[in-house]
């Protein structure tokens, strides 16, 4: 596999709540911890902590607006994550094809 996998990035988006937050931010064009907490089964404080994790890995950027912080998904970092996922998928597809060929060869040998 040629792509370098960013473990911190994958750890951050490995959490289902954070993935849902990214989905919500993409759908709405951005949001605050308050607006996200209204759409998720977690507290505003929990949302803020999750946003901090996403911010540290560069998946979101924050802009202060009055007393609130508005978060937006970083398109370039999201594209990087998608490219890494694609590379991992391609590598596993190749591995699975090899395993299938080996299993078929074993089965043919057992039938002889």
Fold topology:
Layout: H1 7-13, H2 16-28, H3 33-37, H4 44-56, E1 60-65, E2 68-73, H5 75-111
Antiparallel strand pairs: 1-2
Summarize the structure.
The protein is 67% helix and 11% strand. It has 112 residues and is mainly α.
CATH class call = Mainly Alpha
Widest β-sheet, arrangement of strands: 1-2
**In percent, how much strand structure appears in the residues?**
5-15%
How much is the average pLDDT? 91
Describe this structure in words.
There is one protein chain. The mean pLDDT is 91. Strand 1 and strand 2 form a beta hairpin. Strands 1-2 form a two-stranded antiparallel ribbon. With 112 residues, it is mainly α. The protein has 5 helices and 2 strands; from the N terminus they run ααααββα. The chain is 67% helix and 11% strand. The chain has a single domain, classed as Arc Repressor Mutant, subunit A, CATH 1.10.10.
List keywords for this structure.
112 residues, mainly alpha, Arc Repressor Mutant, subunit A, two-stranded antiparallel sheet, elongated
């Amino acid at each position: 596999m040629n792509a370098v996998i960013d473990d911190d990035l994958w750890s951050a988006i490995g959490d289902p709540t954070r993935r849902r937050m990214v989905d919500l931010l993409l759908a709405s064009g951005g949001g605050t911890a308050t607006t996200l907490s209204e759409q998720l089964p977690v507290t505003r404080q929990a949302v803020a902590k999750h946003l901090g994790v996403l911010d540290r890995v560069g998946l979101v950027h924050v802009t202060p607006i009055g007393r609130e912080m508005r978060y937006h998904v970083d398109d370039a970092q999201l594209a990087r994550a998608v490219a890494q996922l694609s590379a991992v998928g391609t590598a596993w597809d190749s591995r699975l094809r090899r395993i299938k060929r080996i299993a078929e060869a074993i089965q043919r040998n057992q039938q002889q």
